[in-house]
Amino acid sequence: MQKVLNLLFSAVCCLFFCSCQSQKEEGVKKIDKATVKSDVIGKDVQFIDVRTPKEYLNGHIDDAVNMNVNDPGFKDQILQLDKEQPVYLYCKMGGRSNRAAQLLQEMGFQTIYDYSGGYKDWVKPEK
Q1: CA-to-CA distance for 94 and 70, rounded, in angstroms?
Q2: Minimal CA–CA distance to 117: which of 44, 40, 53?
Q3: What φ, ψ does residue 120 adopt, rounded to 5°?
Q4: Residue 29 and residue 20: Cα distance in Å, rounded?
Q5: Which residue pairs from 62-66 have beta carbons closer than 8 angstroms and sit at least 24 positions apart in sequence?
Q6: Nearest to 49 by CA among 29, 34, 70
Q7: Whole-angstrom distance, CA of residue 82 vs CA of residue 2
Q8: Which of 61, 65, 71, 89 could lock 97 by a disulfide, CB 3.0 to 4.6 Å apart?
Q9: What is the pTM of this model?
Q10: Is the dihedral of CA 16, 22, 28, 30 positive or negative?
Q11: What's the CA gap between 111 and 50, in Å, rounded?
Q12: What is the structure's pLDDT at 52?
Protein backbone atom coordinates (compact mmCIF):
# COMPACT_ATOMS: atom_id res chain seq x y z
CA MET A 1 0.00 0.00 0.00
CA GLN A 2 2.85 2.40 0.88
CA LYS A 3 4.47 1.82 -2.54
CA VAL A 4 1.20 2.69 -4.27
CA LEU A 5 0.86 5.90 -2.23
CA ASN A 6 4.48 6.87 -2.96
CA LEU A 7 3.96 6.22 -6.66
CA LEU A 8 0.72 8.20 -6.67
CA PHE A 9 2.39 11.08 -4.81
CA SER A 10 5.29 11.10 -7.29
CA ALA A 11 2.91 11.14 -10.24
CA VAL A 12 0.92 14.06 -8.82
CA CYS A 13 4.14 16.01 -8.14
CA CYS A 14 5.34 15.36 -11.68
CA LEU A 15 2.05 16.53 -13.20
CA PHE A 16 2.06 19.63 -11.03
CA PHE A 17 5.63 20.48 -12.01
CA CYS A 18 4.97 19.96 -15.72
CA SER A 19 1.82 22.07 -15.69
CA CYS A 20 3.65 24.92 -13.96
CA GLN A 21 6.45 24.75 -16.51
CA SER A 22 4.11 25.08 -19.48
CA GLN A 23 2.41 28.09 -17.89
CA LYS A 24 5.76 29.83 -17.51
CA GLU A 25 6.50 29.45 -21.21
CA GLU A 26 3.30 31.17 -22.32
CA GLY A 27 1.64 34.40 -21.26
CA VAL A 28 3.01 37.80 -20.29
CA LYS A 29 6.61 38.17 -19.14
CA LYS A 30 8.06 41.42 -17.81
CA ILE A 31 11.41 42.32 -19.31
CA ASP A 32 14.01 45.00 -18.64
CA LYS A 33 16.25 47.28 -20.70
CA ALA A 34 19.06 44.72 -20.93
CA THR A 35 16.68 42.12 -22.38
CA VAL A 36 15.36 44.60 -24.94
CA LYS A 37 18.94 45.38 -25.97
CA SER A 38 19.92 41.72 -26.31
CA ASP A 39 16.72 40.14 -27.64
CA VAL A 40 14.96 42.91 -29.61
CA ILE A 41 17.29 45.59 -30.96
CA GLY A 42 18.42 44.73 -34.46
CA LYS A 43 16.38 41.52 -34.49
CA ASP A 44 13.44 40.56 -36.70
CA VAL A 45 10.76 40.53 -33.99
CA GLN A 46 7.27 41.90 -33.46
CA PHE A 47 8.13 45.04 -31.50
CA ILE A 48 5.15 47.28 -30.70
CA ASP A 49 5.07 50.79 -29.23
CA VAL A 50 1.56 51.17 -27.78
CA ARG A 51 1.82 54.93 -27.11
CA THR A 52 0.04 57.65 -29.05
CA PRO A 53 1.29 58.59 -32.55
CA LYS A 54 2.46 61.97 -31.17
CA GLU A 55 4.56 60.26 -28.48
CA TYR A 56 5.94 57.87 -31.10
CA LEU A 57 6.94 60.72 -33.42
CA ASN A 58 8.77 62.45 -30.55
CA GLY A 59 10.99 59.38 -30.21
CA HIS A 60 10.75 55.60 -30.18
CA ILE A 61 12.91 52.55 -29.66
CA ASP A 62 14.65 51.04 -32.67
CA ASP A 63 12.20 49.97 -35.40
CA ALA A 64 9.15 49.50 -33.17
CA VAL A 65 5.78 49.75 -34.90
CA ASN A 66 3.26 52.18 -33.42
CA MET A 67 -0.13 50.69 -32.47
CA ASN A 68 -1.91 53.00 -30.02
CA VAL A 69 -3.60 50.89 -27.33
CA ASN A 70 -6.11 53.73 -26.77
CA ASP A 71 -7.18 53.73 -30.42
CA PRO A 72 -10.56 52.07 -31.10
CA GLY A 73 -8.92 50.08 -33.93
CA PHE A 74 -6.17 48.63 -31.72
CA LYS A 75 -7.60 45.11 -31.67
CA ASP A 76 -7.87 45.09 -35.46
CA GLN A 77 -4.24 46.23 -35.73
CA ILE A 78 -2.88 43.54 -33.46
CA LEU A 79 -4.73 40.86 -35.38
CA GLN A 80 -2.22 41.55 -38.17
CA LEU A 81 0.50 40.11 -35.91
CA ASP A 82 1.50 36.44 -35.79
CA LYS A 83 0.00 34.92 -32.62
CA GLU A 84 2.57 32.10 -32.68
CA GLN A 85 5.59 34.45 -32.59
CA PRO A 86 6.68 36.48 -29.55
CA VAL A 87 5.38 40.04 -29.28
CA TYR A 88 7.39 42.71 -27.47
CA LEU A 89 5.47 45.71 -26.10
CA TYR A 90 6.35 49.01 -24.50
CA CYS A 91 4.76 52.35 -23.67
CA LYS A 92 6.01 55.31 -21.63
CA MET A 93 6.31 53.67 -18.19
CA GLY A 94 4.50 50.31 -18.29
CA GLY A 95 0.81 50.97 -17.66
CA ARG A 96 -0.48 50.93 -21.22
CA SER A 97 1.81 48.11 -22.29
CA ASN A 98 0.49 46.03 -19.39
CA ARG A 99 -3.09 46.66 -20.58
CA ALA A 100 -2.09 45.85 -24.17
CA ALA A 101 -0.39 42.64 -23.01
CA GLN A 102 -3.57 41.52 -21.27
CA LEU A 103 -5.58 42.20 -24.45
CA LEU A 104 -3.12 40.21 -26.56
CA GLN A 105 -3.29 37.34 -24.10
CA GLU A 106 -7.09 37.36 -24.20
CA MET A 107 -6.91 37.27 -28.00
CA GLY A 108 -4.78 34.12 -28.00
CA PHE A 109 -1.23 35.40 -28.39
CA GLN A 110 1.17 32.79 -27.04
CA THR A 111 4.23 34.72 -25.83
CA ILE A 112 4.12 38.37 -24.82
CA TYR A 113 7.02 40.40 -23.46
CA ASP A 114 6.24 43.66 -21.66
CA TYR A 115 9.10 46.13 -21.26
CA SER A 116 7.68 47.54 -18.07
CA GLY A 117 10.26 50.35 -17.78
CA GLY A 118 9.08 51.72 -21.10
CA TYR A 119 10.41 54.57 -23.16
CA LYS A 120 11.12 56.65 -20.05
CA ASP A 121 13.53 53.96 -18.83
CA TRP A 122 15.02 53.55 -22.31
CA VAL A 123 16.07 57.21 -22.64
CA LYS A 124 17.24 57.47 -19.01
CA PRO A 125 21.04 57.74 -18.89
CA GLU A 126 22.75 54.64 -17.56
CA LYS A 127 24.86 54.98 -14.43
Answers
A1: 14
A2: 40
A3: -60, -40
A4: 15
A5: 64/90
A6: 70
A7: 50
A8: 89
A9: 0.79
A10: positive
A11: 17
A12: 98
Cα distance between residue 53 and residue 98, in whole Å = 18
CA 107 to the chain's CA centroid: 13
Query: Would you give per-residue pLDDT tens digits along the chain (127 residues)?
Result: 665 445 445 544 444 444 343 334 467 999 999 999 999 999 999 999 999 999 999 999 999 999 999 999 999 999 999 999 999 999 999 999 999 999 999 999 999 999 989 999 999 987 7
Q: What is the DSSP-derived secondary structure letter of residue 93?
A: S
b or e along 4-33 (b: 16 or more beta carbons within 10 Å of the residue's beta carbon)? eeeeeeeeeeeeeeeeeeeeeeeebbebee
Of how many residues is the chain composed? 127
How far is the C-alpha of 42 from the C-alpha of 20, rounded, in Å?
32
Q: Is residue 61 within 8 Å of residue 70, measured between CB atoms?
A: no
The one-letter amino acid at 73: G
